[in-house]
Design goal:
Number of domains: 2
Order of helices and strands: HHHHHHHHHHHHHH
Distance between the termini: 32 Å
Shape: globular
CATH architecture of the largest domain: Orthogonal Bundle
Number of helices: 14
Radius of gyration: 19 Å
Strand content: under 5%
CATH topology of the largest domain: Farnesyl Diphosphate Synthase
């Protein structure tokens, strides 16, 4: 690896470490060279997601996403201009990453920027999850070392489940930002006829909506586990570790009865480390 490549790898690792993400300890299960590729993928996702969460005007956010699309084009040509792009170029060379999956992540974030996922219908929500999370799963399993059809099905299902879990975890925080990812069909089914986030989180029927969406997430976790049966379990250890962390988070939220939408549930660092170590030994 060139000096620039080494510097890029260090930069993306710092992003992953600083984030405190639930992904960090599962990524530590990987050998160093594979771990570096995952840090590059994570840093890209973090940078793109930060555009949607930032304070730029919508047109400026769209422009920032366009800049990342251009960087993916430069990665394809072997001449990225950013540290993250250079790290992704190395990862692509080592693990044949599909640049279409990086584009899909941008497409998903663009849905956020445009407001397309404001109380979306279920089909739109599923597409959003496929882009912002399923595509990341497809990138990850290439790095993990099992890109079989079954592993791909599992990656998409796991990404869907994890993103729905994130949505449920962040209902209150998202509402404070004027966002609402809960699907329109479930809102209507339980008598909530508004898409105003501030109003929705005060409705008595909100726990029923969250329960229904939590059941969908639980089923997608089960779908992922079924798909991964027969795959290279050793290669997919990080995926199994992430699935266990997020399943635990979903169970804890469900046990609360979904009655406190402003509460931020977390899995502690010690628990995440224990889960990672357990899967390291399997």
């Amino acid at each position: 690896m060139s000096a620039a490549g080494i510097a890029a790898a260090r930069a993306t690792r710092r992003i992953a470490v600083k984030s405190g993400s639930s992904f960090y300890w599962p990524m530590r299960l990987l050998p160093p060279e594979r771990r570096g590729a995952m840090f590059a993928i994570y840093a890209f996702c973090r940078a793109v997601d930060d555009i949607a969460d930032g304070d730029l005007l919508p047109d400026d956010k769209a422009g920032a996403l366009a800049d990342w699309r251009a960087e993916i084009g430069r990665i394809a040509e072997g001449r990225p201009q950013t540290a993250i792009g250079l790290a992704l170029l190395d990862a692509r060379g080592d693990y044949d990453l599909d640049l279409a999956d990086l584009e899909a992540v941008i497409d998903g974030v663009a849905m956020d920027v445009s407001g397309e996922v404001q109380a979306p219908d279920m089909a739109v929500l599923t597409l959003y999850c496929r882009r912002v999370a399923g595509a990341v799963g497809l990138l990850a399993i290439r790095v993990f070392g099992d890109d079989s059809p079954a592993a791909r099905r599992g990656a998409v299902a796991l990404g869907h489940a994890m993103q729905l879990t994130n949505i449920l975890r962040d209902v209150g925080e998202d509402a404070a930002r004027g966002r609402l990812y809960l699907p329109r069909e479930l809102l209507v089914e339980h008598g909530i006829g508004t898409a105003d986030p501030a109003a929705v989180i005060t409705r008595p029927a909100l726990p029923l909506v969250c329960t229904a969406l939590g059941e969908i997430a639980a089923q997608r976790f089960a779908d992922a586990e079924t798909a991964f049966t027969g795959c290279d379990r050793r290669a997919l250890r990080p995926a199994f570790a992430m699935m266990e962390v997020y399943r635990l988070l979903l169970r804890r939220m469900a046990s609360s009865g979904w009655t406190r939408p402003g509460r931020r549930f977390r899995i502690g660092r010690a628990t995440k480390l224990w889960i990672a170590l357990k899967h390291l030994l399997t």
